[in-house]
Amino acid sequence: MTELKTEEYYLSMGPQHPSTHGVLRLLLKLDGEVILQATPDMGYIHRGLEKIAENRLYLQIIPFTDRLDYLSSMSNNLAYVLAVEKLANIAVPPRVEYLRVIMAELNRIASHLIWLGTLALDLGAITPFLYCFREREQVLDLFEMSAGARLTYNYMRFGGVARDVSTEFIKGTADFIKKFGSKITEYEALLTNNPIFLARTKQVGIITPKQAIGYGLSGPLLRASGIKYDLRRALPYSIYEKFSFDIPTGELGDCWDRYIVRIREMRESIKIIDQALAGLPAGDFKAKVPLNLKLPAGETYVPIESPRGEFGFYIVSNGTNKPYRLKIRAPSFCNLSIISNLLKGWKVADVVAILGTFDIVLGEVDR
Amino acid sequence: MIPLAIMLFKSVVVLAFLAVTTMFLVYLERKVSAHFQVRYGPMRVGWHGSLQLIADALKLLMKEDIIPKMADKWVFLTAPVLVFVSAYLAYLVIPFSPFLVVKDLNVGVLYVLGVTSLTVLAILMAGWSSNNKYALLGGLRAVAQIISYEIPLILSIIPVIMLAGSLSLSRIVEAQHTFPFILLQPLGFLLYLLSATAEVNRTPFDIPEAESELVAGYNIEYSGMRFVMFFFAEYLNMFTVCALAATLFLGGWQGPLLPAPVWFFLKTYFLVLVLMWMRWTLPRLRIDQLMDFCWKGLLPLSLVNLILSALWMVFYG
């Protein structure tokens, strides 16, 4: 009798797959269920936004930034206008700074809610997804009230914001953050200490602090590995130094740490919004800035802490009204660099858990 | 000739009953899940969406029947039939009431376990013949899981058989006329329910068809009516394990005041609701954790339960 032979095989996971969060394709080399090699393949929604930007006025680029990380358009807007303002030396009225912080933090909550829902969905728990969307809906309603859009807000302007907010918005936001804390507790009741959830996430996909720094990870991934690095504190932009909030960190850098860091971040965002609403001054919502803005020749890079990590715009200007070069540092893309190393030795089911806690947005990965 | 006609008539009645049951179960699942998730669920077709399932069935009937080019055609075509037949056959011995049973076999329990374990063969056939790696992975997972969980499942039933002294389902129900066996076998009931959940691939053990990993698992390449067969069988199997649990542990159709079938359905649907509750609350285990749970948790426990029950019967029974 001849001995039975087994062989390795390739499994193409994506670009059409429910758990690759868009159009990421992972080419997995498998031995049964165990991953021997994982090769991420991307570019399925590459739109060449960096090149397009070279032929647009500075103002016209703002809507394009919406389409990068489409789950946190406000952060993208903010990073871009901060970079331009820095190069053009535009002073921003105080009310604008507060509004921007409120919007960015609301957007962080909305973005983390999607992440939480899809992570639970990837692990087979369907119900938290609906709960998260219920609350995200309220945030989107607030954005609709202020920016007029529900996904691509196009809200920030150089030296200001597109529209001032109404009193209903302020009241709605205050209501929302008052109730939202108990909602987080509700999600946690379903997941945090659930034995199955713990079995699926604890000790799974561990990133050591050294690896995290070596691969240039940022955002919740880096903090989950135990490194207390948040650009809102490390390199304060806008008016973040005025607010008191904690930077949650993990201990082990496994999937569960990445989960709990983001959960705690949502609670911190509530604190920030609360303080910003209390301190919101009256005044202009826009500085006088020409529509056809010309930037002085030079270059600048401004990173901000987007929900996914260090999100930055590098602008090179040659003194005209269009950027000579616009480079986007997308956290999802940089965070993805560790994936092929990290997935080795885990099982197919762990791929979705690990990818789920990475919280990638393909619009940003491909740009 | 006449007995044959009667048998045929009975089978058709069972088939009709199964069709209605499946529809009702799917409707129930959609409504239950919706209310778990603060939604309404189907609302448009009929009163509170009650006709939704008929609309869905019609849609699925009209779908194109796709057979993948590289599939192993005959195996691919047989698998859904086999999965349905094995689900269907189990109903022939389940006693809905003292008289409402197609055929009261004297080896009823053995028969049910036998025919339902054919499901695994059908699932493997479906996964293998589709010539799709996701389907293959789903099929392999299903085989590993279902065969493993069959052991604690059977071990947890054996004490009941010992108590009743019979393999006939009707006799087991009659043996519970003073009190249901769950009072004597609480651990056995729990072990049975857990193994049975894994046996019918429901969350947290829905690993063979984990849609976020394997997209749909073994039935990924099936469409239209053939897909319906799998879907049908899945819900029928869920009903079977719950009906079996009600029969073996909860006293089947026995109960005060209400007529016998009512009691049977009440108990069965209560267990169905428990399974649905689990599905819409819990995440899913990983395949190796699932195996650990079976071989290191359920199997020793069910062995202990069996030995203790045997000892108890020898000394006090």
From TrEMBL, chain A:
GO terms for molecular function: NAD binding; NADH dehydrogenase (quinone) (non-electrogenic) activity; quinone binding. NDH-1 is composed of 14 different subunits. Subunits NuoB, C, D, E, F, and G constitute the peripheral sector of the complex. It is found in: Cell membrane. Its main location: membrane. Its EC number is 7.1.1.-. PROSITE patterns: COMPLEX1_49K. InterPro entries: NADH_Q_OxRdtase_suD (IPR001135), NADH_UbQ_OxRdtase_49kDa_CS (IPR014029), NDH1_su_D/H (IPR022885), NiFe-Hase_large (IPR029014). It comes from candidate division WOR-1 bacterium RIFCSPLOWO2_02_FULL_46_20. This is NADH-quinone oxidoreductase subunit D. It catalyses: a quinone + NADH + 5 H(+)(in) = a quinol + NAD(+) + 4 H(+)(out).
